[in-house]
Design a protein that fits this description.
- There is one protein chain.
- By secondary structure, this protein is of the alpha+beta class.
- It has 3 domains: 194 residues, Heat Shock Protein 90 (2-Layer Sandwich), CATH 3.30.565.10; 118 residues, Ribosomal Protein S5, domain 2 (2-Layer Sandwich); 243 residues, MutL, C-terminal domain, regulatory subdomain (Ribosomal Protein S8, Chain: A, domain 1, 2-Layer Sandwich).
- The protein is built from 18 helices and 26 strands.
- Strands 5-4-3-6-2-1-7-8 form an 8-stranded mixed sheet. Strands 9, 10, 11, 13, 14 and 16 form a 6-stranded mixed sheet that branches. Strands 19-20-21-22-26 form a 5-stranded antiparallel sheet.
- Helix 1 packs across helix 4, helix 12 packs across helix 16 and helix 12 crosses helix 17.
- The longest helix has 26 residues.
Length: 581
């Protein structure tokens, strides 16, 4: 007797459901995407018990006639593609023809649908993959799907579901994704007969973000200026410097309207923020990438969460450039925020660079803040001195760490250590990029054997590595000799060091300077040599510190992503003193 047998249609559908339908949130995702593809203008989602007891999705889309209502429950039946060639240019969210039969095979399923011009609709009831009832329906134009008792016939799957609250949070996250990705559609969400949110249709993404996540977050977002690079269009919002999260929970990325997870784009966002992002933090992002459907493969995973780009390097370059440009454009508004009252007479002093003499002596290692050639002058308690160029009133220094200043909005505090870190960091990086990285020979050259791929990569990039100050020479097949290192890199484990450099360079965009790879070590170096807490600064030194901070590319944060300056508004102070509620 043959051991290999064909699976029944019911079992085959349940196997397919294991890939497509992982939990109630997967059901909501598939049904809502179908509603969007049906050109719905309003979508309502209702659940009970975290979607385990009931999921109901109602839309006012195009609806279906009876033949289509029955065909949509067959595996691999779809209206969205016709030939294999169509897979290369998918323009809809759904296309595989697996979702509805998979859902119907693991739940008690009810579909009612009606075309906009039809006099009567169709109702189909399915239980565990078997059609039980087909009859006329009297619902409004559009489609309504009810999914009850999810996984009732697969107890092993059902026991792996989480608590009702956890499943509800996952459903709400999916709805947030779809609502942000399609602001022109009205969404409402009802949980256990209680309205969770009701979002009106809007033409502007800004309004959808405000309605869903609040005005406070919206006020801290920067709009990405329309960018088109290599036929890749980018729009959306990113968080200001300092607006980040400990996870990617608020990192929303869409490719041609599809919510996706992409290592390429995640890496590009991190590179775009660069030193403006604290370690272990992720930027808040609402990013929309639009490109030719032929340039992206969405048929990677049954759940359609992952995509592959035909030219990932171009996508990465476009995202990095857009993020950097947006952060740089925020510099002017940031400077305006800390502007002093117009009544203050500025003290006109020619800006100079406090680190240049020190850099000239030792290009790779800043050692101290130089003493300016002025008479010693400490702050008196009530003395107010304006800073040139940005018209601050300097009030004094608190706890030998925080420079206190007054501007039109209220009180400004500058962390002198973080500010000096940023100044030294950018000056040293600029010198390195202009002149190259000085290298220091090792007492004993290290011989390193690498994998075939890494060895081939190093052979092609020897010039880049040498510009970084890494003295690498070929020393046989797949073997290299490391003879010198930049002064700021440790040689305790040269093999690991070289491997880390290779991995970092492979993942970096082409537009990035290879010298950026050493910036983590540069940041550690300047941290050691920047002015510290309890280091007393004379008034001219403080003035220079503030001026040079404003001249930096990213003045709002230190190389580790911490803020250099914060504003305490007059309104906040009045609340503290009970002057207003």
């Amino acid at each position: 007797m043959s051991r290999i047998q064909l699976l029944s249609d019911t079992v085959a559908s349940q196997v397919a459901a294991g890939e497509v339908i992982e939990r109630p949130a997967s059901v909501v995702k598939e049904l809502v995407e179908n509603s969007i593809d049906a050109q719905a203008e309003k979508i309502e989602v209702m659940i009970r018990r975290g979607g385990i007891s009931l999921i109901r999705v109602t839309d006012d889309g195009t609806g279906m006639d009876r033949d289509d209502a029955l065909l949509c429950l067959e595996r691999h039946a779809t209206s969205k593609i016709r030939t294999a060639a169509d897979l290369a240019i998918v323009g809809t969210l759904g296309f595989r023809g697996e979702a509805l039969p998979s859902i119907a095979s693991v739940a008690r399923f009810r579909l009612t649908t009606r075309g906009k011009e039809a006099l009567a609709g169709t109702e189909v009831i399915v239980s565990g993959g078997r059609i039980e009832t087909v009859r006329d329906g009297g619902e409004a134009p559009g489609t309504q799907i009810e999914v009850r008792s999810l996984f009732y016939n697969l107890p092993a799957r059902r026991k792996f579901l989480r608590s009702e609250n956890t499943e509800t949070r996952n459903i709400e996250h999916q709805l947030n994704l779809q609502a942000i990705g399609h602001p022109a559609i009205a969404f409402s969400f009802v949980r256990d007969e209680r309205l969770v949110f009701q979002l009106p249709a809007t033409k502007a993404l800004r309004e959808r973000i405000r309605d869903l996540l609040g005005s406070e977050l919206l006020a801290r977002l920067l709009e990405i200026e329309l960018a088109v690079k290599a036929k890749i269009k980018l729009i959306g919002f990113i968080g200001q410097v300092g607006v980040s999260r400990a996870s990617r929970a608020q990192q929303f990325v869409f490719v041609n309207g599809r919510a996706i997870e992409s290592p390429v784009i995640s890496a590009a966002l991190k590179e775009g923020y660069h030193t403006a992002l604290m370690k272990g933090q992720f930027p808040v992002t609402f990013l929309f990438v639009e490109l030719d459907p032929a340039e992206v493969d969405v048929n990677v995973h049954p759940a359609k969460r992952e995509v592959r780009f035909r030219d990932p390097a171009s996508v990465r370059e476009a995202v990095v450039a857009a993020v950097r440009r947006t952060l740089e454009s925020d510099r002017h508004s940031w400077q305006e925020q800390f502007r002093a009252p117009s009544s203050v007479d500025p003290l006109l002093v020619r800006p100079t660079n406090p680190v240049a003499p020190m850099i000239d002596r030792q290009p790779a290692l800043p050692v101290e803040l130089p003493e300016p050639a002025v008479t010693d002058h400490r702050f008196e308690p009530n003395e107010r001195r304006p800073v040139a160029q940005h018209q601050f009133k300097i009030l004094g220094v608190l706890n030998k760490l925080y420079v206190l200043m007054e501007n039109a909005e209220g009180l400004v505090l500058v962390d002198q250590h973080a500010a000096h870190e940023r100044i030294l960091f950018e000056e040293l990086r600029r010198r390195m990029e202009e002149q190259g990285v000085p290298s220091q020979r090792l007492l004993l050259p290290q011989v390193i054997e690498l994998s075939p791929r890494d060895a081939e990569w190093i052979e092609r990039n020897l010039a880049t590595l040498r510009k970084m100050g890494l003295g690498v020479e070929e020393f046989g097949r797949q073997t290299f000799k490391l003879e010198s290192l930049p002064p700021f890199l440790s040689s305790a484990d040269p093999t690991r060091l070289l491997q880390d450099v290779i991995d970092s360079l492979k993942s970096a965009s082409n537009s990035s300077s290879p010298l950026r790879l050493g910036e983590e070590m540069i940041a550690k170096t300047v941290c050691r040599h920047a002015v510290k807490a309890n280091d007393p600064l004379r008034h001219p030194e403080v003035e220079k510190l503030i001026r040079d901070l404003f001249d930096c590319e990213l003045p709002y944060c230190c190389p580790h992503g911490r803020p250099t300056m914060i504003q305490i508004s007059l309104g906040e102070l009045e609340k503290k003193f009970g002057r207003k509620v």
